[in-house]
Amino acid sequence: MKKPEILAPASSLEVLKTAFDYGADAVYIGGEMYGLRAKAKNFSLEDMKEGIRYAHDRGGKVYVTANITAHDRDLAGVEQYFEELKEIGPDALIISDPGVFTIARKVCPGIDVHISTQANNVNYMTFNFWREQGAVRVVTARELSLEEIGRIRENIPEDLEIETFVHGAMCISYSGRCLLSHYFTGRDANLGACTHPCRWRYHIVEETRPGEYMPIEENERGTYIFNSKDLCMIGHIPELAAAGIDSFKIEGRMKTALYVAVVARTYRQAVDDYFEDPDKYKERLPYYQEEIAKCTYRQFTTGFFFGPTDHETQIYDNNTYVRGYTYLGRVDEVTEEGLAVFDQKNKFSAGDEIELMMPEGENITALVEHMYNEYGEVDSCPHPGERIRIRLSEPVRAGVILRQEAGGGDE
C-alpha cells in the first residue's frame, strides 16, 4: 500500500511552519478571500510566498482553498485572485464551485485542482467526472463509510487521488453546506462566515404560544441537539489505508499551533509505525490515543466510517471543549545566553513545570527557572502576546512548542 499523505490545516504562517516541523507532508491554507474560514487569520500573498518556500525547502506542499459557493459578483475577483496565485505557485487549489473550477483551469493551467468536500462527492461517477474535467484529487464527503470509499477506489483510475477527513470537528449539515448561519444571522457558511449555530442551545416555541420557550432537555442544563463529537480515526489507520485513501486530512483552520502540532505529530507517528510494522502500531495505540487527547476536542467519534451515526455521536449537555494542555508558545529563537524567546499565548509563571513538545516525538518536562519581559525579570506573564524570554532546566531549540498540563475549559 502507498503511504498516505498527512495533510494539516494552517491558519497563519506560524502554524504552517509548525505543521511541517511536526510531521505534516502538506498543509491547506486560506488566502484573504474566497476560502471558507473568513474569521481565520488567513494568509496575505507575502505570507503565502514565504510559506510555500518553507514547505518546498522541506519537500512539502501547500494547497490553497478557494471553495466558496460563488455568486456572479465574486467571479471577476476570483479571476484576479487566481492571476496572483499563479505567480506565487501553490501546489494545488481546493475548489467546490464549477464556475470557480473553470476559471482556475483557464488562469492557472499549471496548478493542480482538488475538489473540495463541499462539492458533495459521494460516488465514483462524480469522481470520474471531475477527473475528466482535469482534477487530480477529490475530497470525499464526510458522510461516506470506509466500505463506500473502498468501492470508489475500485472504480476510479489509480492516478486520481482520494483525500478524506480523518480528524477534527464535524458539521451537522451535509458535507458542510449549511444554511442555518445565514438564516439566523445573515452570515453565510458557504461564503466562509459561519457562526456555528450547530453549537448553540435550542428551545421549542409552539406557534399559538409565541414567546413561551419550552426547553428541549436531556438534563437540567438543556440540550445541544446539533452538537457533534469530534472525528478521531487514530485507532483505525489500517482500515483507512486499506480503503485506498491517498491523503489523511486534519480539520482545523481556526486552531492553534499546539493543536496542529499535537495532531500532525501523532498521525505521523501512527502512520509511520503502521507502515514499518503493523504490530508496532498495535502496541503503541494507547500512546497515540493518550497524545491525541492532549489538544482541545469535543469528545471523539468515528463519524460515518463504520456506518450511520446514532445518538452516541452527539453531545447533548454542553458545547465546551476538553482541554488537556494549555498552549504557551512556539520558540522563535534561543539566545547565546540560552534563553528561549517567544510570544507567550497564555499565562504561566516562573517556577512552573512545563512540557517541551519535541518534533521527533519526545515530550520533555522542564522547570521555568527565570522569566524576563522587556523591562526585566518577572514572576509571571499574564498578558497574552507578550514577548518574553525564559531560562529552562532543559535545553530547547527554535521551533519547539511549549505547553502546560491543564484542566477542562469552556470553548
Question: How is this structure best described in words?
Answer:
There is one protein chain. With 411 residues, the chain is α/β, with parallel strands linked by helices. Helices cover 28% and strands 22% of the residues. The chain is built from 10 helices and 20 strands. Strands 1-2-3-4-5-6-7-11 form an 8-stranded parallel β-barrel, surrounded by 5 helices. Strand 4, helix 4 and strand 5 (112-115) form a beta-alpha-beta unit. Helix 1 (13-21) packs parallel to helix 2 (45-57), helix 1 runs parallel beside helix 9 (257-276) and helix 9 packs antiparallel against helix 10 (278-292). The protein starts with a strand and ends in a 6-residue tail after the last strand. The model is unreliable at 36-40 (pLDDT under 50).
Order of helices and strands: EHEHEHEHEHEHEHEEEHEHHEEEEEEEEE
Structural class comes to alpha/beta
Number of helices, counting only DSSP H or I runs of 4 residues or more? 10
Low-confidence segments, given as residue ranges, are 36-40
Average pLDDT confidence is 87
Report how far apart the termini are. 39 Å
Largest sheet: 8 strands, parallel, barrel
Shape field: globular
Strand content: 15-25%
- Please bin the fraction of helical residues: 25-40%
User: Strand sequence of the main sheet, in spatial order?
Assistant: 1-2-3-4-5-6-7-11
Number of strands: 20
Radius of gyration: 22 Å
